[in-house]
From TrEMBL:
This is 6,7-dimethyl-8-ribityllumazine synthase. It catalyses: (2S)-2-hydroxy-3-oxobutyl phosphate + 5-amino-6-(D-ribitylamino)uracil = 6,7-dimethyl-8-(1-D-ribityl)lumazine + phosphate + 2 H2O + H(+). PANTHER family: 6,7-DIMETHYL-8-RIBITYLLUMAZINE SYNTHASE, 6,7-DIMETHYL-8-RIBITYLLUMAZINE SYNTHASE DMRL SYNTHASE LUMAZINE SYNTHASE. It comes from Plastorhodobacter daqingensis. Keywords: Riboflavin biosynthesis, Transferase.
Length: 173
């Protein structure tokens, strides 16, 4: 049973220079999204990072917004936040798989992304996972982005040369 398991959590990294994160939020389930944002905001503040928020219609639009920001704005990392609850059709599988795959490809292309898109069977599972005083998956996603930003700075820059998506990539670290 997952509730009785313990998990190791890395301490938040420290930074010598400012860190700007962008949280891209799909507020389809507004109360759940708000809880995810609260957790992400608290974690970013604890690390001394600035967190901007933008909203998109749904989970499938999150990767596109991250890609646009990564190519056009000045952010060091990204936090993907939203919730997909299983319904009666296979649309759930499409949304979960495609949003996750797109975020993974963006990460492989050099974007420092924490994936906080919940994929759950029911609302109760989502509420527990989103609660900043519970599993705090929004905070966990922000922490993941911060750890990747720290790695990109440790190794000199986030990306080099031509990325997997075919675009020239630059120094985002």
């Amino acid at each position: 049973m997952a509730a009785s398991e313990t998990h190791h959590t890395l301490p938040l990294p420290g930074f010598d220079a400012p860190v700007r994160l962008l949280a891209v939020v799909a507020p389809y389930y507004k109360d759940i999204a708000d809880a995810l944002v609260a957790g992400a905001r608290a974690t970013a503040e604890a690390a001394g990072a600035e967190l901007d928020i933008v909203e998109v219609p749904g989970a499938l639009e999150i990767p596109t917004a991250v890609r646009l920001a990564h190519g056009m704005a000045d952010y060091h990392g990204y936090v993907a936040l939203g919730c997909v609850i299983r319904g009666e059709t296979t649309h759930y599988d499409t949304v979960c798989n495609d949003s996750s795959r797109a975020l993974t490809l963006l990460g492989l292309d050099g974007a420092c992304i924490g994936n906080g898109i919940l994929t759950v069977e029911n609302r109760d599972q989502a509420v527990v996972r989103a609660d900043p005083q519970g599993q705090n998956k929004g905070g966990g996603a922000a922490a993941a982005a911060l750890h990747l930003v720290a790695l990109s700075r440790k190794w000199g820059r986030a990306t080099k040369g031509i990325g997997f998506l075919g675009a020239k990539t630059g120094d985002k670290g």
